[in-house]
Amino acid sequence: MNPLALLPELLILAGAVAGLLAGLYAARERQRVTAWINAAALAGAAATAAATAATALSPGTFEGYVVDAATNVTRLTVTLSTLLALCLMAGRARGHARESELYTLTSLAALGTIVMAGAGDLLVLVAAYLLASIPAYALAGFAKDAPGTEAALKYYLMGAFLGVLMLAGVTLAYGHSGATAYSGARAPAVAAVLLLAGPLFKAGAAPAHFWVPDVAEGASRPVAAFVTTVPKIGAFVAAYRLASEVFDEPALLAVLAAATMTLGNLAAFHQPNVRRLLAYSTISQAGYLLVPVAVAGRTDLAAPALLFYLAAYAVTNLGAFAVVVATGTDTLADYAGLARRSPWTAFALVVCLLGLVGTPPTAVFAGKLLMFAAAWDAGYAWLAVLAAANTVASLFYYLRWIRPVFVQEGSGRRAPATIPLLAATASLALGIVALLTLLP
Amino acid sequence: MNPSPWLLPALPVLPAVTGGLLLLLGRAARRAPAGVAAGVPAGVAVTAAVLTLALAVHAAVTRPATPVRLLPGTGSSGTGSSGTGSSGTGLTGDGLLANGLVVDGLSAVMVVMVAAVGLCVLVFAAGELRTARFHGLMLLFVGAMLLTVTAGDLVLLLMGWEVMGAVSYALIGYWWHDPARVRSGAVAFLTTRAADLGLYFAAGAALAGAGSWAGGAPAPDGPAGLPAPWRDLVAGGLVVAALGKSAQLPFSFWLSRAMAGPSPVSALLHSAAMVAAGAYLLLRVQPLLAATGWAADLVAWAGALTALLLGAVALAQRELKQLLAASTCAQLGFMVAAAGVAAVAGGAAQLVAHAAVKSLLFLAAGAWLSALGTETLRRLGGAGRRYPVVGLAFGVGAVALAGVPPLSLWVTKDTILGAVREPGLYAVLFAAGLLAAAYSAKALAAVWRPGPGRADARELTPWERAPLPVLALAAAGFGAVGLPGAFEAWGRLVGDPHAAAPSWGGLLLSGAAALTVSALTVSALTMSAATILVRTPAPVTPLPVGAAGAFLREWMGLERMAVVLVARPVLALAGALARFDDRVLDAAVTAAARAVRTLARTAAGLDDRGIDAGVEAVPRAGLAAARIVRAPFETGLDGLVRAVAAAAGRLGTLARRPQTGQVHLYFAQAAVALTLLAVAFALLR
Q: Any idea where the domains of chain A sit in the sequence?
């Protein structure tokens, strides 16, 4: 047991605590320093995670916590995505009365997400679920306005309900096998469904997806970007571990994947509010992400497909939300003529939306390619075909957003392009690198 | 042997890239303040030309070779040095299609000549034409020409050849506001382009020939070693392309049209570069011509007849530039004939000497045209006295062109005549030489004749004057290489070691004849030499009069002939084919499409009825589904798409129905869904 292997998690925790303490004593106009503290902790966590991954520093298992390649990739993805989200938040929260709390809550939610991914014991999973959820509830209602409060309440109630179901699942599994460690626990079908309730809630997958559109619309835009993106990463890795170790229900997960992607796509069709549109889009993406979870243990491609798709999705989705943050408007009609006003922002939007469709050479394309290959390889051809059909259908509502950007004249303010462009570039670069490695 | 391999590619690339940049950035530069930007393109162009000349001299001294492999699996070692002749199809002896860039003796002479004349012309143009477009195109042209003369294989040659042709079109049509000039450019371009097809044909035949004989014994002497049918096809294609580019019969008329361009363009394209490329190509592949047996004779006679007939055409012209153009054709005829009679050294000497002479004459003509606004011989009286530097330089050039001793063309022409063995051919070429003396004298007399001073004439800038003495020096002195003693060394340089210097007897004979004819012409044109001295203007009487004169003045109706014999039949054939396409092929396609559509409609009808029947069988879903499905099928595919979209939209609305916004309903739905899943999968076990 090498405690250094937990350095990334410890760094984030230290950053969150230090940020909170600094925020207590810093003057309101100097609260920005807490953002830097949290960001530095996240960056340090990313660096140590990369170092751990590169040097294979004591890969192994603590009691109930696994440090392996999947955990390391999750650490990297979560810390970097959270940094991007922090950039989005910092731009809007300057001078806010509770500015430091915003960053601390974000860091803690990110920490919970990572621990969820690394959990190797059902009880750790429950604790991580709570750590990932409770700061996110607070974040959703952070603005203390009516829509935010309502969103936070719905988010909390859904989380509490499904968390209780998950706890029931843990109880059932423990009663059935007498162990809570993944290596020993075995869950029958009913316990599997109940256990999945928690990860499905965090991932925003059917039938636990109801909170996603409400929170995406009600919370402030940077928070919406964070909570619809980052917690998913840990949730899917946790589901993957459960599906490959604790129970063996590929058909159940395949049905969930199919339902989630189809429902999300259909609901996004005629959505006039871009935040709700993105929310449904993230639901459909959750459906695609469930495909490698469903085929976990049946093909070697499942883990790479899931981890790469998660990274690709995180950066691309954050990029799309970054455009919404930059433009400051939620109505589809307000995007008319964006290409004229702010060509670079429009470019980033197009890259991210086409990326979410899965257009080469963006990262999600490579992720989808891996996902299709994994489904095909594991004998779930029908799932791959359904995912492909859904991908084609999804083009419709993404294009509904892209078209006014170019063809119509419109009035509105110019939108800064830095962060959207950063995310779009990252998405493109990740995709090109992946394709270059995949192709030969 | 090859100290810096990048220097050779830099030779064509430097002017081409600089020219391209000038073309691209010229528009932006024009927006800059006029005082600052006006001289920039010219300055850049002259600087690039100086660097190019330095590179050319360096290449000529070091003789580098850079292998460039463009086609897989062809050619041999790729070392590409001249004369190694390992696989035997290259222009210089190596692989015909994979040699890269090579500078051997002949190329060395050509690159220095092209770069030097290019520099002179660009310096001259700096005083007159200042747009970035002009200078960019000229540099691009120089780059293409340098690629052409350093190409070691047919593929690179084609590249240079093509760019050269395209840029020549842009340069001839430089004043594009005038539709007549643009049309002239098109005529010139299309004519050379039609002949260029020969080069493609030759390249294809060479590739086919080399491919068909891969693995066989390497041929000892370049393209001449190809097996019989391919060798003749290659030679035929090359001859057509070269005759076209060099404006030989029957293609000569395009050079008359090319005079629509600015004079500096003619000074480069129609002296040292474009037209010279054809002669250079023939000199380069002389062993191939000789090997076929027929091509050498064909080329010799084509050149000789061009020299004679276009000489007569030149004599009949009334415009200075037209006279010079026809004389260019005639002089190139000598070089082409030289390739036919295996006088490579003589042909090369004639090429260089003529380049200097004709470039000089065109620049002088251009200077007068821009200063006096006329190039009609009748109105150029006094021009030589008004601008003495130009007049003297023009005089040197014209006397050299006449073949009067001791200037350059006198010697170089005799190096060719000395190699001719056939009496008939010799007689034709000798007569052509006499005609050259006559038309040169006519031009000389026209400009040195006293004439009225023109008040509106402008002064020439130093830029315009500077290159003329340099070129005049070359025009006068280059004949030294043809003198006995020096000529053997020249022959070794250009790869013709058996070249024999002209005999003193022949030199004396032709010199005396040229002198006599020139003197007779001048006196016939001006009544008496005394009129020049007493400065009384005398009308210039055109020598050939009447119908024959008009025929010659119109370049022997060559263009009309080409239009009637080639252009119109081709257009008629194209029209017929287009009608065939419209009425037969297109009709068939349309009919097929209509049949398919009818079939589709029938199938849709069947489907319609089938689906309807199916729908009726399900009473509850019937009405709604029929409304979605039936109507679209009546309007075809469009309706189908719309139906899918509408159905998806309805499903979308349906999919949003659970999103009530009420938490207790969320709870209920999640609980029901999870319960159903749990029950289903527990029971499935």
A: 250-440
